[in-house]
Amino acid sequence: MKSEVLIIGAGLTGLLLAYKLKEQNISFKIIEARSRIGGRIHTVLTDDETPIEMGATWIGIQHQELLKVLEELKLPVFEQFIKGIALFESQSTAPPQHIHLPPNQQPSYRIQGGTIALINTLASSLTKEELILNEKATSISYIKNQFQIDTINHNYYAHKVVSTLPPKLLVNTIQFNPSLPKNTIKIANNTHIWMGDSIKFGIAYKRPFWKENKYSGTVFSNVGPITELYDHSNHKNTKYALKGFLQNEMYLETKKNRKSKVMHQLQKFFGDAALEYSQYKEEIWRKDPNTFKDSKHFIFPHQNNGHPIYQKGFFDNTLFIAGTETATQFGGYMEGAVKSAQSIYQKLKE
């Protein structure tokens, strides 16, 4: 199976790049290891179809390139709800403080229908020959000005290759022949993986009891296990949920224990109404082998994101390392993923 460009990874960078290549009639294939598209954009639906974001969620007004893409695709956004009382839990021995937040001067926004709407729209024009799921790349060989990309199931051939995997994952899960430069491997192994150590959870409710009691749903806690919490109702305000983050070390607990501790903390914040939920969802990103690769040493958030080494091509400018971690601006955000796709697209046209 041969194409001009082979893209590894069907997340935002890979799908936006494919969208742009298709507009120019440049042949490509995207291979994706998972059985779904989106990568670290992952909107799950509860049984009553309440959308809950387990991955990338918010957009700021500073994310101009992403906003332009959404406008082009005719995907509207709506403002994150923060009206009402916010809670701050500074210590376990004291009740949470009630804080009246001022109107948000720089509001965050969410995509109507969930962030997955962006992914689905970008993928909607791709054929099954162009977008192939359940294809995990295992090796990349550069022979006679052509790449052979092996997966568990097939061999692919392309003149140019773009990896959108987190760099650390790329250099530890795909065998290169010839090898990548040693310094590139060293930098990649010390590049922070966006979302990699996050635990996200969401709880759906039949009614927005927090709004009814003049709470915004916004919580910040130094105690845990919940560290941040936000209203996660849909744009029509017909589906209701709370969504937030758990302390990173909570991955060591069982799901049953995590859920129990979350509900106990929510009851402490909001009373017994918090226990009347319809469904609990969570995502431990470090347990996803297609996202996370553990380190023996600490890597700072955004460490080496946008490093100069990612701005050049390899193997005579025919292999490119892309994705939000490689963006020179907004690394680790959806905006970074968009900027990376735009940058690689220009390089592929040269």
TrEMBL record:
InterPro entries: Amino_oxidase, FAD/NAD-bd_sf, Flavin_MAO. Pfam families: Amino_oxidase. Residues 12-81, 90-342 form the Amine oxidase domain. One of its GO terms (molecular function) is oxidoreductase activity. Belongs to the flavin monoamine oxidase family. This is Amine oxidase domain-containing protein.
